[in-house]
## 1
Amino acid sequence: MAKKTYDLLFKLLLIGDSGVGKTCILFRFSDDAFNTTFISTIGIDFKIKTIELHGKKIKLQIWDTAGQERFHTITTSYYRGAMGIMLVYDITSPKTFDNIAKWLRNIDEHANEDVEKMILGNKCDMEEKRMVSKERGEAIAREHGIRFFETSAKNNINIERSFMELAEAILNKTPSRDTSTNHTNVHVSQSSGHSSKCC
Ligand SMILES: Nc1nc2c(ncn2[C@@H]2O[C@H](COP(=O)(O)OP(=O)(O)OP(=O)(O)O)[C@@H](O)[C@H]2O)c(=O)[nH]1
Ligand SMILES: [Mg+2]
């Protein structure tokens, strides 16, 4: 059997209205690329990226959900296994920002209580079309005690940084073991979207 090439496995989830740029954010992070064609996600998809944080190899399994309401049942079934959730809105669309409250309620209903959350105001490259101020994004994040970034998948602004910070927040509350041994390895089945909480 192949030797495990990572120390920890973190499961992350991207949620938010259709068209806010969840798939593009993930594509920028995983492949450093961007596509202007909008191909709405059907159901759920995922990508893997391994990062290094504080000397630990962390495999990120990132689930990209469809924002369309008709996929709600399938997408919410993935909340439970997530250790970190990114809530995305589009700074040019007030409706997607208003819906952040709805997405937060979905998390309360379906995710683990200790899930790490982060709010992203995406498409910050479109300053001329901005309809949601950065201050409003910061305010809702502060209100809920959540981290916040404005991002651009197109211009690669704050994409890597937001994933790294979310991973770091999860790592910080992962009970540490003696890193000189190999016991930090985690075994989580990847055939389902549900994680047995690691370590
Ligand atoms: N200008 C700009 N456009 C973006 C950015 N991110 C995404 N887009 C565009 O927004 C559209 C929607 O992006 P997607 O990533 O497919 O949106 P989504 O949130 O995954 O949508 P669903 O899969 O339907 O939930 C596409 O046309 C992208 O090119 C960005 O940072 N800046
Ligand atoms: Mg998508």
## 2
Amino acid sequence: MWLYLAAFVGLYYLLHWYRERQVVSHLQDKYVFITGCDSGFGNLLARQLDARGLRVLAACLTEKGAEQLRGQTSDRLETVTLDVTKMESIAAATQWVKEHVGDRDGGLTLLPRLKCSGAIIAHCSTELLGSSDPLASASQNAGITGLWGLVNNAGILTPITLCEWLNTEDSMNMLKVNLIGVIQVTLSMLPLVRRARGRIVNVSSILGRVAFFVGGYCVSKYGVEAFSDILRREIQHFGVKISIVEPGYFRTGMTNMTQSLERMKQSWKEAPKHIKETYGQQYFDALYNIMKEGLLNCSTNLNLVTDCMEHALTSVHPRTRYSAGWDAKFFFIPLSYLPTSLADYILTRSWPKPAQAV
Ligand SMILES: NC(=O)c1ccc[n+]([C@@H]2O[C@H](COP(=O)([O-])OP(=O)(O)OC[C@H]3O[C@@H](n4cnc5c(N)ncnc54)[C@H](OP(=O)(O)O)[C@@H]3O)[C@@H](O)[C@H]2O)c1
């Protein structure tokens, strides 16, 4: 009996492993657009996919970030500047992507940019070439029409505080970048992804599964989860697959120790008097130390996250959700299935008591 059970479980994992290892073909012809490539996961993913031979279209917030990335990658990788909070910037980036991946839906423009020894050999109009154009068919056959992958990675976390003393502007900014930005970029690029029957990878957070601290950030990531789930169900018949990546705590620009602690101090300093009286300086100091310890414990192995992103883009069978990092897998995900009261206790047991606690 136990032997049969063990054999059944073993077989299940073997099949699962085999299924997960299957990789899509023609990777070198596939375009992947990634937001937030100046630093952190986006930057590493851009370099990782470039090294694997994919055609990376990397969006950076700043020209300086773009220049640095170009300096570290092959000629195949191209960059564009993109601020996901600005509609005109998203529209310009979408047009730029269209020009790279080929656009046949517009009726007037056909822009298969085929590279031959690094040179652009075709940049044509449908009116001139018609649908039987050999370059267009070549590009289609090679599978480079449309955008294979869109990775919504750009995000901010500022500052680390409680809901009550997080100012409205900071909350709004997090929503604008982390949620509205993801929605707008996705909707803008969706026709191109649909054409390629490609992939959308949305970077959420484990704080999009268990809301815990930094209110505005968690709200934005819960929004990313909801948007991704809704879109996956709505567009299931178009062959587009959507994956959500939920990293635990990692050391990146976002979790930079000095900056994070400085911002935390600043937001406490700027908090209204009644907040300071309600919580008290001791509360803040204790919370500050908890945060400091948390930031110190962030994982430095960013590949745990970018490998999930890469799998979502290159596997024949991408997962719907990826939890990246040991804390995500072994603490937050199990916690998310516990009764809420028990999860509340576990998450806040080490927190200090506010000065005016009852
Ligand atoms: N680090 C973690 O522990 C962690 C955990 C869970 C989820 N995440 C998520 O992972 C994603 C990447 O973050 P990260 O940890 O790699 O942090 P990061 O190093 O700060 O990377 C975020 C990137 O987004 C860019 N960005 C900021 N505002 C933007 C805007 N308005 N438009 C376009 N790009 C913008 C940043 O540019 P600049 O560098 O020029 O500011 C940066 O390149 C985020 O969605 C984040 O929420 C991170």
